[in-house]
Design a protein that fits this description.
By secondary structure, this protein is mainly alpha-helical. The protein has one domain (40-199). It is built from 7 helices and no strands.
Amino acid sequence: MKKFLIFGLLLFGLIFVVSCATAPKKGPVPAKGEVAPAPESEYGQAKELRSRIMKWGLDRYATQEFNAAEGRFNEGESAYNKDNEKAKTAFKDAIKGYQAVIDKGFPAFLEAKIAGVERLKKSAEEIKAPVAVKNDYNGAKTVYEDALNKKKKEQYEEASDLLDRAKTQFQSVYDVTLAKKNRAEKNIDEAGTKINELEAAAEQEQIE
């Protein structure tokens, strides 16, 4: 009987040790009245996305989404270090909202730039720029095509910079071609005037 009692106690002790070792570990629970850790990561990410939106003026392309995200961002700042659980949730919502603004706003922003480059490219082609300044025209066209590829890959900042370069180059192509065209037309006019003068002089000599 004594052996069974000792064996039972040992078995109970073994079960207790195993259960303690395998019990899931819980994270530290803030004591009552203690503030949860500040959501620094979420706050930083929200500020970074917001800064990106403001830099490129994307808010005007997604006003409703931006205003909603701004509301949650402000709520997060108000709760920061007071009710950090609330602040964390608000910042997460703001991050989703700001990302929605970028996803909607950047393509619209780039489309406006693309339209401007297209108009300038067409104007250059109408005055025969691909022939008059072939290398410069092809260079501008290559930059423009690179910009469109970057846009497809959602590399929006790079696409924007390339579109600015393409616009500058097409403007130069247009200006140079137009100057050549004007000089050629002037030379033709001057040559025509000279021919008319010679013909008039020849007719006068025949009369005399």
